[in-house]
Amino acid sequence: MDIKAVIQDKEKEFINVAMDIWNYAETGYKEFKSAKRLCDCLREEGFNINDSIPELPTAFIAEYGSGKPVVAFWAEYDALPGLSQKVLPFKEPVAEGAPGHGCGHNLLGTASLAAAVAVKELIKKGKIKGTVRLYGTPAEELLTGKVVMVKLGLFDDVDAVIGWHPERINMVMETPTSAVCQVKFHYKGKTAHAAVDPWNGRSALDAVELLNISANYLREHVPPGTTLHYSTLTEPLAPNIVPEKASAWYFVRARKRETAQSVYGRLVRCAKAAAEMTDTKVEVEFCGGCSDYLPNRTIEKCLYEAMVSCEPISYTEEEMDFIRDISKTLPGSLEASQAQVRTDYGINVSDKLICDFFAPLSETKRKTCITGSMDIGDVSYIVPTAQINIACYGYAIAGHSWQVAAYAGHSVGMKGMLKAGEVMAKGAKLLFEDTSIIDRAKEEHKESLGGKPYESPLPDGYKPF
Q1: How far apart are the C-alpha atoms of 240 and 246, rounded to whole Å?
Q2: Number of domains in the chain
Q3: 324-341 per-position pLDDT tens digit
Q4: pLDDT band at residue 366, thresholds of 50, 70 and 90?
Q5: Cα–Cα distance for residue pair 211/204, rounded to 1 Å
Q6: How far is CA 134 from CA 6, 39, 73, 244, 294, in A?
Q7: CATH (domain of 218)
Q8: Contact between residue 149 and residue 59 where contact means Cβ atoms under 8 Å apart
Q9: CA angle 441, 445, 447 (to 5 degrees)
Q10: Beta strands in 88-221 (DSSP E)
Q11: What's the pLDDT tens digit per position in 421-460?
Q12: What distance in Å separates the CA atoms of residue 254 and residue 15, rounded to the nearest whole number?
């Protein structure tokens, strides 16, 4: 039985797992049911499970086989707050304000499960030798789960890592991502009557506003590709009371970890200066961070070879109607995405609602950088890592949206999930069959690091929750 046949044979089981996780819709570090669902399935498949990681109670490591090479996949299964949505092409939450899989992680984790199971079957039948692992990595949306696992040394003996993410295009993900530092600044002042004796008060809100002003000036003097974005965190305030407490939550993103950390340090100084100016006190709460992602071209070529060996996904008339109806809820998105495909790949998709081709490798895209962040970046600093994107929704889509949550519970998303499992398993098979590819990937990885040792963006003693 080949990889495609294994996945087809267990298709209903994988879809059931994905739908269960979709229904659980658990946010970061609270994914107890989702992690258990995956572990239960892996145990039935004969994997050895380590689900007792004290620092991360919703993380796990599943393993099958023995010896080298060790090729790993990763599973994510956290949902996003406030994105509850029924499997409908119009907005209607399952429960108002509840979490939902607006990033498709129910699909992500289950496709990785499918890939691991397919590779396990090859090892079991003696067609390949080595060890396959599936890492259950919690709280990707908080950008810290994998960073903690790397700091604990849980990836140290892995030879190569393969992953994926639901997207609008079938492609190898060739681009690096941004590093990030997250921080909350909590100010404490002194209340007073804002009209009668404001001179006796010390406004925490003034401190937040001065921090934000200084951050605005700082933005002019940071390297290209660096961004600072924030939200204010304040309790309901009455205008006639000088506010005693106020906070701000900042993300500092940059193309390299070192840059993000440097700008973060400057922002902290701005925060302390704002406290000095307002005669308030500030608590600096470092909320975590992750490194930029280092693509590995050697493994990417294997994944591309695996991808183009697969049959494209086909859709029913009912599925196309669903895609068409959802597309109408995002005016302008379809045309913008179609134009981007033309720019990136020179392919005209103006008459298409969803990707029906495998995008070629692109040296142009490889030189760009995604402004968002992923905690797989830290894994990529210690292990050669590569990943793919598979279309699980139409060209018209918005990230972290109810539309993604709807697709994540629909057969359109499930078809993409199963295809991703097939591609990843085929890519891993190539690595097991020819370990010289792993040797070349490690050499490329070494060159990418440029002799710089990995440094965790998390301080010693950091607790993710």
Answers
A1: 16
A2: 2
A3: 999 999 999 999 999 999
A4: confident
A5: 11
A6: 17, 10, 5, 48, 20
A7: 3.30.70.360
A8: yes
A9: 120
A10: 131-136, 160-167, 171-172, 179-188
A11: 999 999 999 999 999 999 999 999 999 999 999 999 999 9
A12: 37
Of the three residues 289, 324, 341, the one that is the final residue of a domain is: 289
Arithmetic mean of pLDDT over the chain: 97
Same domain, 189 and 155: no
**pLDDT for 1 beyond 80:** no
Q: Is the pLDDT confidence value at 90 over 90?
A: yes
First to last CA, the chain: 44
What is the amino acid identity at position 357? F
Q: Which residues span the domain enclosing 279?
A: 179-289
DSSP characters over 211-257: HHHHHHHHGGGS-TT-EEEEEEE-----TTB--SEEEEEEEEEESSH
More confident: 1 or 251: 251
Domain end (from 264, 289, 314): 289
Structure token pair of residue 295: 């693509």
Supply the pLDDT for residue 234: 82
Strand 160-167 with 70-75, pairing:
parallel
Return the residue matching tokens 């629909």. Answer: 410
What pLDDT sits at residue 237? 86
Place of tokens 């975590």: 288
What letter represents residue 394's amino acid? G
